[in-house]
Amino acid sequence: MSMHTSLRRTAATIPSTTTTILPSRLPTSLSKATTFICSQCRHATLLRRPKRPYTFTQLITLTDGSAFTLRTTSPAPVYRSTRDTRNSLLWNPSSSKLMNVEEDEAGRLAAFRARFGRSWDASAPAEAAEAAPKDSADAKAKEEAARAQAQAEQEEEDNLLDLISSFGQEENQGSGKKKN
Amino acid sequence: MAAREPSRHLARALPRAFAPSARPQAFIGRRNASDEAPTRRLSDQLDELESASSLTSKVSDSAAKSFDPVTRAKSRRAQLPRSRYQFRSPKYDRGPLHPHQPPAPSDPSSRLFVPGPFSLPRTEQTYNSTIASDIMTLCYVHTPPGFKPPPKPRNRPLRGPRGGDVLRLLRKPIRFNNIPKIERITIHSYVKQAAQENSSWIHVAGIAIQAISNMRVETFKSKSSVATWSIAPGRDTVAVKAELQGENMHHFLGKLIDVVLPRIKDWQGVKGSSGDSSGNITFGLEPEQVALFPEIEVNYDMYPPKMIPGCHITLHTTAKADKDARLLLSAMGIPFYGKIVQ
Amino acid sequence: MSSGSNGARRIASLLRSSKLDSGVCRSCQETLGRRNYASAATTSATESTPATPEVSSAAPPFPYTINAGVVLSRPPQVTRDLEPFEKAFYFYQKRLNERLALPFTKYFYFKRGTPADEDWKKKIQERRTPARDIGKYNAYASDSWNDELLLGAKEAEPEHQVEMLVQDAESTANATSQDTSKKEEIPRPFSRVTEADKKGDHKSLNRLLSRTLYLLVQSKEGYWKFPSTPVEAKETLREAAERTLSQTAGVNMNTWMVGYHPFGHQVYKNRKAHVDKATGAENHGEKTFFLKSRIMAGQADLSANKDLKDFKWLSKDEIAKYVLPQYYSNIKNMLADR
């Protein structure tokens, strides 16, 4: 009797699957397949060829230049990632470089800089302003500070301009702005 | 008395054995296989197995250059009939008593043969070289020399198993032979629209899961009835599953960790309370997160809009407790957040 | 980790029998003492409570110096080089797969008439197969049986395969881009052999990327060994190991100490016991317990340390050439093969 029930169970599970036969299960599925149909069955069982999608070898390059190959269904020979464990904050919690990095996934900022240069950046002039007071022990200090102030003011204007120019696109860049 | 004699000989021989020898100083102690392991390569050991290996034997240049199997085969005047050199596996399995038996599935001529592996995956190598030994060191439990477990009091019956109705797995101390490792990965996707609307949802889900997993998926009908989604048991095919093992699994894991998870916006990690308390950790990916896989990204337009499925990814480990599984997975690079539940 | 308390419980049960001798280490004894006081009320209060102090006071001083050693290692950074057999095997499996897997569904990935589609067709004409890394091979032709590589063929080499992938990506980018004047350059993966390898710089952490490297220091007498110092009073092994690391190799390193337990030990016995004339205590040698540690960033710096001359980052088979044979036979089993 127990024999009978087990047979029925296999018969119940197999139709619910598609034609796939898992490679790892091959030995067992072969032996199962012989007793598949019913308890009285004596005819032959078709040995189906396992169906597997075509796989390519792909070279994946991470942002820090490390590269590895893997098997994938995608026909692209090389995949260059823009965001991965090497430059994501969650994986590098102590990295000061990543703490205030701007997000530029669509390449908008890069395109803007290619066209108008880096002088519009928020971070570069600010650094100069920070660095200036350190040197300012001399008589030049006041001059420097005044220039930095002027620069900072100008930069604020630029930021406003930036805001205006990117008015319509703000939804996309929203997260990036927040981080900056 | 006769039994004593060898020991007398031994006593006489011992000082000689310990006297400094004239030979160059060799490693003291036993000779182990591990002594020479790093300096010897696998190809050196092949010599011992097989004296004439094709990998080591030298062939003269002229013979190598003139060898062209295709022209040689074509220049033959009479071709052999196929049946003379090509074995065709029987298409049907006719039972164990039939004279014509199919070859074993591991035989390349078998119809069930699956080639592979095609590479040595990176995550597997990292696990073997770094993570496994670190986990063993971390989980070591010290037993002082001379320790014996306290004896069981006599005449006391064996204690019944602890816990309630559900018996948890027994967690044994982690030693060299039971270091937790990733056993398989299950990608499962339940598409309720396949029952509500039409079957195209399940087809798209199957193709998407196949694309990210390199495997043909299995489909399932619902077992339970969900009235609000109008799903009746056994009527509609509502779920697809791919079960990855071996090389596919390692490649998927490396891709998931290094490329896909970091690209998810505002992702905190896997929830600390995830897990089935026997070492299997599950987390879910939303449809837009599944679309971040490079395989789907490469032809994102070909998938009907909004039909890419979300999925659940279960990482089955050989660990017996979630704590060990999390230790392993965080070493592989999966972050956890929130309250860690053991 | 609960393992610590488990171990403590075992030690406690061992000590309760008051048969303790020098076989149990100091930190275990301490843990034992504490556990014992805590559990004394529940177990046999009369017997166990006085036992521990007696043992620790009556025991003679331990005749060995206990050292804490640190095995600071850099895990492998790149995958290992494949054996010739593995290369041949993987390559052959790929060609077999060509014949047995489902054919590539081109229409799913390339829309008809697009430049990418034209480029794909042209390339298929050349190499006869969708895959780039298996050379020119047509799995569906009548001579598909000819799937073995000839002698001296490069197709099975991983470097060659990666090069083919990159070349294919470059030619696709050139063929599908609008302006024909600019040539697309896709950067190749970095070399697996670094400058430090070529120069033989043993102090660089960038050498032997596919092997585990261990920090070895040279004492004034010229012996190479892992950094180690005696454990001081009231110091656990782990604390002593951390102190050792900062004392010998400086603080300019980001390291991670793996666990609290030693993962190897080494015993050095003096020919004759050194007798301290003041107290009469004998010293038979030293026992070193090694803790495992991983370096994440930084570099060793011996300038603050006057007892050590030099340091090197060595792999396992190089260590065998530097250290004494006796020392190597003690440590070899705790070092990773790769």
Automatic annotation (TrEMBL), chain A:
Gene Ontology BP terms: mitochondrial translation
Basic and acidic residues: bias regions: 132-146
Annotated GO CC locations: mitochondrial large ribosomal subunit
Region (Disordered): 123-180
Ribosomal protein bL31m N-terminal domain segment(s): 49-94
GO-annotated molecular function: structural constituent of ribosome
Bias (Polar residues) ranges: 166-180
Protein name: Ribosomal protein bL31m N-terminal domain-containing protein
Protein's organism: Penicillium argentinense
UniProtKB/TrEMBL annotation, chain B:
GO molecular function: structural constituent of ribosome
Signal peptide: none
Keywords carried by this UniProt record: Ribonucleoprotein, Ribosomal protein
GO CC term, one of those recorded: ribosome
InterPro entries named in the record: Ribosomal_uL5, Ribosomal_uL5_C, Ribosomal_uL5_dom_sf
Domain named Large ribosomal subunit protein uL5 C-terminal: residues: 238-336
Family statement: Belongs to the universal ribosomal protein uL5 family.
Protein name, entry field: Large ribosomal subunit protein uL5m
Automatic annotation (TrEMBL), chain C:
Polar residues composition bias: residue spans: 169-179
Keywords: Mitochondrion, Ribonucleoprotein, Ribosomal protein, Transit peptide
Domain Large ribosomal subunit protein mL46 N-terminal: 64-197
One Pfam family it belongs to: MRP-L46
Entry-linked InterPro entries: NUDIX_hydrolase-like_dom_sf, Ribosomal_mL46, Ribosomal_mL46_N, Ribosomal_mL46_NUDIX
Sequence ranges of Low complexity compositional bias: 38-54
Source organism, top-level taxon: Eukaryota
Region of interest (Disordered), residue spans: 37-59, 169-201
A single GO molecular function term of this UniProt record: structural constituent of ribosome
Localization terms from the record: Mitochondrion
GO cellular component: mitochondrial inner membrane; mitochondrial large ribosomal subunit
Family classification: Belongs to the mitochondrion-specific ribosomal protein mL46 family.
PANTHER family attached to this UniProt entry: 39S RIBOSOMAL PROTEIN L46, MITOCHONDRIAL PRECURSOR-RELATED, LARGE RIBOSOMAL SUBUNIT PROTEIN ML46
UniProt-recorded name of the protein: Large ribosomal subunit protein mL46
